[in-house]
Amino acid sequence: MNKIAIIGLGYVGLPLARLFATKYPVVGFDINQKRIEELKQGKDFTLEVEDEILQKVIVQSNPFLSDNTGLYCSNNLDEIKEANYYVITVPTPVDKHNRPDLTPLYKASETVGKVLKKGDVVIYESTVFPGATEEECIPVLEKVSGLKFNVDFFAGYSPERINPGDKEHTVEKILKVTSGSTPEIGEKVDALYKSIITAGTHLAPTIKVAEAAKVIENSQRDINIAFVNELAKIFNILDIDTHAVLEAAGTKWNFLPFKPGLVGGHCIGVDPYYLAQKAQEHGYHPEIILAGRRLNDSMGEYVAAQVVKLMIKKGITVKGASLLLLGVTFKENCPDVRNTKIVDVVKALEDYGIQVTIFDPWANPAEVKHEYNLVCHNELVSGSKYDSIVLGVSHKEFLNLDLEPLKKENAVVYDVKGIVKGSDAKL
Question: What pLDDT does 426 receive?
């Protein structure tokens, strides 16, 4: 019987573990003890898996010992050693210089290498550059385990397609790309995923093809958003409503409906750097990919500058002015603050001497403080009024929020997402 160990129980690993656990014995492994205890109680702070659904599969004893279905969560390495499939779902971030940081991937590979046995299959889901699985991860598995790749153990790659906060396109409803280190293993990996993914699977011919397919998905989105961000800058100069232009252009059947915005998160704002790094290692300097990244990374300072210009036009003294920022997560209706570009707006505003108050009902204030050293409020400060209000994230709680009681006389309202009626300006 297939016994599956999921390494990393975050936004990607937990939904996958929950789904596998409906048909197989699954042990979810994570080094975060607090996370393990929370999941054992059937609670998920990421909100990716509803508590009621999670509690249906959570078990309190290792299902590998009984061959029963269910998800058991642990940080004890001994409890995953009976698995025959190891699925690695750890983050793949970039460092402060935007260079790929494979440290989590190396450490996860070391962990699996300690328990790897003959015949086992290790599947990677983390987004990487083409070649990373076989060139970076497999050597770690071989060194730690003492086993030989494609003789004693095998590998697969099936890129994650999780969309945080999206309750419609859940993991089983998104077609899954699969691959294996040999044709036979590719078929086995594909069959494993096909057994739980109702949307179906696509078996890629090689691991490198599957890796490349994943990394260009988000690079493509990044470039398209960069294009409309540049349009927004141009149309702002020309005093034309960008959203009205996009609505008009969108009446053509093949026009792609991208909108301007701040591009953050753990995928779109990161993955293009992985592809760019690999290209540069082989002597090619990617022009369009890096141009898109530069433009999108500049949008935080652009938003801040536009807000300050509006304040000056209204006669508001910028230094010492109060500003309410609505939203700090990287996207709407989601608590994920990883690589949020709202932080760039905050830093730029503070450089102007503006006092920024952050209100976000979804974000964890402790996490925001830890990650960015910023204070975040889950509730509005009673009675407070502000010189400026910036809507940064279109949480559902903000769609009908009455801003009038929050505004000082002549206050500026700037709308990054294009949802606020009567705003002074939109991105």
Answer: 84
Given the residues 73, 137, 267, 334, the one annotated as active site: 267
Cα–Cα distances in angstroms (integers) from residue 248 to residues 24, 241, 295, 415, 418, in the given order: 50, 11, 24, 20, 15
User: Rounded CA gap, 180 and 138, in Å?
Assistant: 13
Burial class (CB in 10 A: 0-12, 13-18, 19+), 100: buried
d(CA 316, CA 343): 23
pLDDT at position 192 is: 98
User: Which uninterrupted H or E stretch holds 79?
Assistant: none
Closest CA to 258 of 217, 224, 285: 224
Q: Where are the beta strands (DSSP E) in 317-373?
A: 322-326, 355-359
CA dist., res. 47 & res. 50, Å (int): 6
> In angstroms, rounded to a whole number, what is the distance separating the alpha carbons of residues 2 and 21?
11
Residue 137: active-site member? no
Q: What is the pTM of this model?
A: 0.92
Q: Which two tokens stand for residue 167?
A: 């309750």
Low-confidence ranges of the chain (pLDDT < 50): none
Distances 200 to 48, 125, 190, 191, 192 between C-alpha atoms, Å: 21, 17, 9, 10, 11
Closest to 313 (Cα-Cα) out of 412, 427, 385 = 412
